[in-house]
Amino acid sequence: MKESKMYSKVSKLFEDDCYVFYNYIIPDNSRREIDLICLEKCVCPEIIAVEVKVKDWKGALRQSFKRLFYVDRCYMAILANYVKNINLNKVSRYGIGLIAVDGYAEIVIEARKSDKILSWRREMLLNDLITKINRGRDILQSSTNRWEASESFEELL
Amino acid sequence: MRSYYDGIVLEAHIVEQYTNFAVSVVSTINKPFFIDPTVKLVLLNLNTVVKKEWFLRLVEAYNLSEYLQNETVMIDELRKSLDEFVKSVIEYQRSRIAQSSGGLELFGISRTSSQPEIILQPYFVIDDIDSEIYELNLEILDKALAVKGNDKLYAVMAVDKHLLSPHKCSKLISDFAKADGFCVWVVDFRENDEDERSLKRYIEFFKELSEIKKPIVNMYGGAFSIFLGKLGLLNRVVQGLGYGEHRNPYVTATGSYPKRYYIPKIYRMVPISDAQELIREVPELECKCKFCKEMNILNTSESNIKTDYLKMHYIMSRWNEKQMTIDDVLRNLNEIIEVLDERDLFDIYWEFLHHLKIWYNVLQDFVSFH
pTM score, two decimals? Predict the structure, then answer.
């Protein structure tokens, strides 16, 4: 299974409660890209990041660790076959969550709330995501009303 | 800031492109300087630079046009008139700054004549010790020594990394030993990324060169070279502000100044985002210099960080490194390695941290054996 094929399976875990964006480029000069970023649909939303890899769990761990400075929680998603290779102690120690992907995606370890977050970075992401959502809403209101029916906000953008 | 550096190096193409600026800087800072005459011409094939504004001016100053064919310097042709070429390049270094007013006279400012501290032989990158280019560099050195007069004439060893092997470096050093001093450029040698073996060869090269007892300038070096200075292996280290701790003439750099932050405790430049994360995780890495306090690096987005502050912090950090003893360096390295190990950060930020253990081992070994 290719990495990109895993996105939609992982997305299903979050899309009921969150707006989900694929391949989100962080709006600073870092050139970093988050595979999936989710913004909760509530008054005080949390931002959740997911880094997806087929089997390179160490790469996923490195990326996920760095996301903890931007978002409230971060998961790494790995193909289920390769989960046995992962040093779970290390993943837990950093507070990173783990998702195993096979026919469907399943949370193996829940992500803890990040204690590394830089509040200005989080705010930057939050503002950018809200802007994207509002822009998408404007586009929708001026064309069709597919908004309510959409499974994933990302599709509409 | 003037007390935080010893002098400056002006590259000839910069002098030609920004003559007034270069002259004004030299006049104002009142520090030793010298000109690197051929840094942009070292490959003989000049197709990447022929369209530059400064190129024609340098070609004229060095009488190079006769030896150029299809944007390449023809070695045979150059050899026929080598005397003239060498004299032109040396005369350029002596007089280019001294004879220009730098536009200051317009403002009623007269400037005293500025002479470079040293003169460099014209040079080209040496790919091997049995190559035509190697012989050409030696011929140039002989001719430069013949016309140096009272000036201090430094040989330039711009060499590929493989020439640091014991046999080759001994020949290189003995062949260039006749100069008054040495400028060394090991092409694309990245102190932060080299393995232990490569760094040991680097040290051995400088050790052997230092035994000649003449001044040595490392043209592109970082903190590791500063540490070699503490071991008595070299006298000066040159670096571009923020991005010039190594140089590869085969790659044409483009784009704007890359904003990076120098973390003094790990002795290297790091992209701003990674620097913020490392400092957030390891508060011991925080620098308390006046520029860092002003920048508030941890809580400021990259676009709001002033480039000049990054550069001034870098200069100040390098100066502080120069004041340390080798015992301080080893102790600091050991302490920060322990802290980073404790926080389990070597795996995550490996690309920015892996040099620390290598440096510690290599320096500790050298100190123990000598």
Answer: 0.90
